[in-house]
Amino acid sequence: MSYRNRRTITVMRQVQQIIHHGQLVALVVAGQAAIRTCLSDHDFQLVQAKCLYALELADAGRPDAYTDTDADAYANAAFGDH
Q: What are the residues whose beta carbons fall under 8 Å from the beta carbon of 35, sequence distance 6 or more?
């Protein structure tokens, strides 16, 4: 495997997929989030919160700690949804 290929694999491991209602709705990579725009306002806010959760974990050096369940709990707590 060449150095270039190893670097690509390392970068790809740092991409966090954000799933909402079973659908891929956002990607978090390199300190930024790209979110689909076809969501309702409420769902968009929940997905933003999930992205923030992923960004906070990545900033703390723990991107592998992200789980959909924890992200849902974080987002619901942020908006008082239970």
A: 18, 25, 26, 44, 47, 48, 51
Q: Rounded to the nearest 5°, which phi and psi values hold at 69?
A: -60, -45
End-to-end CA distance of the chain: 48
pLDDT in tens, 18-51: 999 999 999 999 889 999 999 999 999 999 999 9
Task: Give the number of other CB atoms < 10 A from CB of residue 74.
Answer: 17
Paired with 17 in beta bridges are: 27
Where are the chain's structural domains? 3-79
Strands of the sheet containing 32-35, edge to edge, are 16-20, 23-29, 32-35
